[in-house]
Amino acid sequence: MSTDDTTDASSTDAESKCGASSTDAGSDDSTSKCGASTDSSSSSSGCGGSDSTTDEKVGATVDDFDAAPGRLVAVGLGPGQPEGMTQRARGALLEAEHIVGYTTYVDLLPEEVTESAEELYDTPMCGEVSRTEEAIDRALAGNDVAIIGSGDPNVYALAGLALEILESKGGTASAVDFEVVPGVPAAQSCGARLGAPLVNDTVSVSLSDHLTPMETIESRLHAVAGEGFTIAIYNPWSRKRRENFQRCCEILLEHREPDTPVGIVHGAGREDEAVEIVELGDLEDLGETDLIDMTTTILVGNEDTYVWDDRMVTPRGYESKYDY
User: Fold this and answer.
1) CA dist., res. 242 & res. 46, Å (int)
2) If we measure between CA atoms, which residue out of 262, 214, 263, 205 comes closest to residue 232?
3) How far apart are CA 246 and CA 221, in angstroms?
4) 3-state class percentages of the chain: helix first, strand second, coil last, to nearest 5
């Protein structure tokens, strides 16, 4: 992954445009002075299983802000490399006064974006609620704010959370001129690396049980694996939930043949990108390797998917209608 420095935009003595001093953008104990009631390190879950709880709570309401609201834009960065970002996303980031995001995603920003921002604010993993509220509070204080994420803001990301928190504060989306700027989702980025695996009906399932119980994930896997969908598997592996990946492989093999093609893309568009095509029967053995982690997306072919010239191909159905 990129580790570009964020230069002076995240200086420890930068003055918050919400009226209070901000902490170092890379600090684990960064605390919102704009109304967010807890810091990102207060989570007791460690991003673990779905039975964990956190003490993150929404703080200030819209009545606590005197300024005319500014603007809040949820921006998808795409796969990670600067050239994978849409022009619309780049333009929105260059216009933003403040940029808020997960530390890894802030590190992926092009230098021209980090240099143009008045402030950068980032939190580590599991700080989703606190950093989203931070972005909202900065917008309510009158600033032009972008909250960033990889891929697309509507795919396992924070666009929905931003609207939920804004509503809980008594605000409205129109008051902060809320907008979603789409990005290229991981499934599409990874599909492009693999050939043409997603040209027919496709579903996505995340194996993270931090917010969704594993029982629900298993039920969804059974439902889609028994149909003719290609399946995009997000968040396939972490040290805390090896069993989730193993159970996923078992369920898929209950419904699909062991020789079903499976595409694996690790770190799409990043420095450590790796791409492999394997058979479903061999997938579970790769769980303990560096190929599969939280930056990996797995694309499981359907009964028609095949491999040709090192590329996955899922027929759309043209061959039944046309001669070619």
Assistant:
1) 15
2) 205
3) 13
4) 35, 20, 50
Pairwise CA distance, residues 313 & 296, whole Å:
20
> From the first residue on, what is the mean pLDDT of each consecutive set of 10 residues in the chain (324 residues)?
32 37 37 42 40 56 91 94 92 98 94 96 90 96 96 96 96 96 96 97 96 97 96 93 95 98 94 95 94 96 97 89 81
258-302 confidence digits (pLDDT tens): 999 999 999 998 889 999 999 999 999 999 899 999 999 999 999
Q: How many residues does the chain have?
A: 324
The C-alpha atoms of residue 95 and residue 272 are separated, in whole angstroms, by 30
Q: What is the pTM of this model?
A: 0.81
> Measured on CA atoms in the order 161, 163, 166, 170, is the torsion positive or negative?
negative
Other CB atoms within a 10 A radius of the CB of residue 12 amount to 11
∠ at Cα 37 (31, 39), nearest 5°? 35
Please report, in angstroms and rounded to a whole number, the separation of the first and last CA atoms in the chain.
42
How far, in Å, CA of 164 to CA of 158, rounded? 10
Burial string for 248-263 (b: 16+ CB within 10 Å, else e) reads bbebbbebbeeebbbb
Angstrom distance (rounded) from CA 21 to CA 224: 49
What contacts 288, CB < 8 A, 6 or more positions away?
none
Q: What are phi and psi of 32, to 5 degrees?
A: -65, 130
Q: Which residue type is seen at 107?
A: D
Q: How many CB atoms lie within 10 A of CB 287?
A: 18
* Strand arrangement of the beta sheet that strand 274-279 belongs to: 202-206, 230-234, 296-300, 261-266, 274-279
Amino acid in the structure at residue 306: Y
